[in-house]
Design goal:
Helix content is about 20%, strand content about 30%. By secondary structure, the protein is an alpha+beta fold. The chain is globular, with a radius of gyration of 26 Å. It has an eight-stranded mixed β-sheet with strand order 15-16-18-17-19-20-21-24, sandwiched between helices. It has four domains: about 55 residues, no CATH class; about 70 residues, Immunoglobulin-like (Sandwich); about 260 residues, Rossmann fold; about 70 residues. The protein is built from eight helices and 32 strands.
């Protein structure tokens, strides 16, 4: 979870799984009244450092900007001088401007605005003092939107479409709501990851009897600043909610049998085939997520755990593990699944679950913390394939799920999970960085496929017949790496060809 090449200090803290203790040192907890919710390990802080990562292939970040201004400069936050610096941009073509060398590649955030050098400024939403912010190492800015690809001059806004699905297994018919991200109409060759979301009637702006997640607004804001992949959201309305969303048998269901397995069949065999047929989706598990809250979070964990070949990403906000301990215990009693998981919990509110010695414990904090521990014991790593968040002072409702959901979206679908074509095609293309006669080294971006080509000709001209020698992929935790291969013999010229972006399941 820490960046490479940094020094750190840390100390372990003893944890009390009691919502009434968290953050309030004045409440007696487990027989203690002194700093009740916090107990640090004795002694000085531990110290350490993370291993250095591979050096960036280019110096600094790059920004492209489409504007009709005759002159453009960028005002950016310089992380070296800790001050804002004004730097002129250079014209490229057709109203596109460029600037290179801003801060360092790999830094978490770049903050900037544009000016025409005549007193006019381009701030997000036209609000003075508001800055663009993005984690991208290279980006294209147009009409207040940030892209990791070269966009067309006109880009459509997002929209929500609806259709009705009649389940083939006897469940209730219901409405399905599909959010299509910006540019869906223009990027006709692009396929998109998909996030299926339970309780679809509570997702979008102006909907929901108990409030809304404002999923469209939140996702729009994350996408526009390059923090989340352009993703299709599929909100599936609930039916017989308690029975469909609970994997365990409960007395209120017909025959005391819950229908979670039938709900899984409905999503996998009825809803998903329609979505994949009607929209340009990436259909594999690594590009497909499931998300929900409360019992919708419980069924999301169940679906990801039982069907990892379909749902490779799971987000459960305030999951109701108290309603089905089996689902929680399966997280440690069965082998780890190849899925990415986000869990969170509130700490207060009107949804108590008794669990001594903290009676009651709100929002299922104890059970969700237990699920967290199960996942870590099973090999999940915080900051890698698992993320966990607390909503301090937050309770069990849509208002707080709306506010916590952006963290889940960016964890499940970060832009680092797809190639940045502004970076690897326009700003900093791959190139051979080392050749010794015995080895050949080049800069490769994660998720891109590369082919080493060679020719035997002694004269370099346009008639060269290139032969494919070896194909490899940029891998590793860092956004870039430096593959090393034995240098082929009998070839006088060699080059690296960047292939199409990989489908992330392949």
């Amino acid at each position: 979870a820490l960046p490479p090449g940094v020094n750190y200090e840390c100390k372990f803290v003893k944890r009390y799984d009691c919502a009434c203790c968290w953050g309030d040192p004045n409440i007696s907890c487990h027989g203690r009244t002194d700093d009740a919710s916090i107990e640090y390990e004795p002694g000085p802080n531990r110290t350490g450092s993370t291993p250095a990562g591979p050096p960036p292939p280019c110096v600094g970040k790059t920004v492209f900007y489409r504007s009709g201004w005759p002159s453009v400069s960028i005002l950016f936050s310089n992380t070296v001088t800790a001050s804002f610096e004004l730097r002129p941009m250079q014209p490229v073509s057709n109203g596109v401007w460029r600037v290179d060398g801003l801060n360092q590649m790999g830094e978490p955030n770049l903050m900037f605005v544009f000016t025409d050098n005549q007193g006019n400024w381009d701030n997000p939403d036209g609000v003075p003092g508001r800055n663009y912010e993005t984690p991208l190492d290279a980006c294209f800015v147009q009409d207040g939107q940030i892209y990791n690809y070269w966009p067309p001059p006109v880009v459509s806004t997002n929209r929500v479409e609806t259709f009705t699905v009649h389940p083939s297994n006897g469940l209730q018919s219901r409405t399905v709501r599909v959010y299509l991200p910006r540019g869906y109409d223009q990027n006709t060759n692009k396929r998109y990851p998909v996030l299926y979301m339970n309780d679809g009637q509570n997702l979008f702006l102006g909907m929901g009897a108990f409030g809304s997640w404002n999923a469209d607004t939140n996702v729009n804001n994350l996408i526009r600043f390059g923090k989340m992949r352009e993703t299709i959201l599929v909100g599936v309305d609930n039916g017989d909610r308690a029975c469909e969303y609970t994997p365990c048998a409960i007395s209120s269901c017909s025959g005391h049998v819950a229908t979670a397995a039938k709900y899984a069949e409905f999503l996998i065999h009825d809803v998903k085939p329609i979505v994949d047929a009607q929209y340009r989706t990436l259909t594999n598990a690594v590009n497909t997520g499931i998300m929900g809250s409360s019992r919708g979070g419980l069924i999301s964990v169940y679906l990801g755990w039982e069907h990892p070949d379909v749902f490779g990403k799971v987000a459960a906000l305030s999951p109701s593990f108290w309603a089905c301990a089996t689902t929680m215990n399966n997280l440690t009693n069965s082998p780890k699944r190849p899925i990415r998981i986000y869990l969170d919990t509130g700490t207060v509110g009107d949804f108590p679950v008794s669990d001594p010695p903290c009676n009651p414990c709100y929002d299922g904090l104890v059970q969700t913390m237990t699920a967290r521990d199960h996942l870590i014991r099973n090999g999940y790593v915080l900051g890698d394939d698992f993320d966990f968040a607390f909503g301090f002072g937050q309770n069990h409702n849509e208002y707080w799920w709306d506010r916590r959901s952006p963290r889940a979206y960016t964890f499940l679908f970060p832009t680092r999970d797809e190639p940045n074509t502004v970076l690897d095609t326009h700003a900093c293309p791959p190139r051979i960085t080392g050749y010794s006669g015995a080895e050949i080294i080049w800069a490769a971006y994660r998720g891109r496929s590369y082919t080493l080509q060679g020719v035997t000709n002694h004269v370099f001209d346009s008639s060269l017949n290139w032969s494919n020698l070896v194909t490899t992929t940029g891998n590793g935790v860092a956004p870039w790496s430096y593959p090393v291969l034995p240098a082929p013999s009998d070839f006088h010229f060699m080059r690296i060809r960047q292939d199409s972006p990989l489908d992330w399941a392949e």
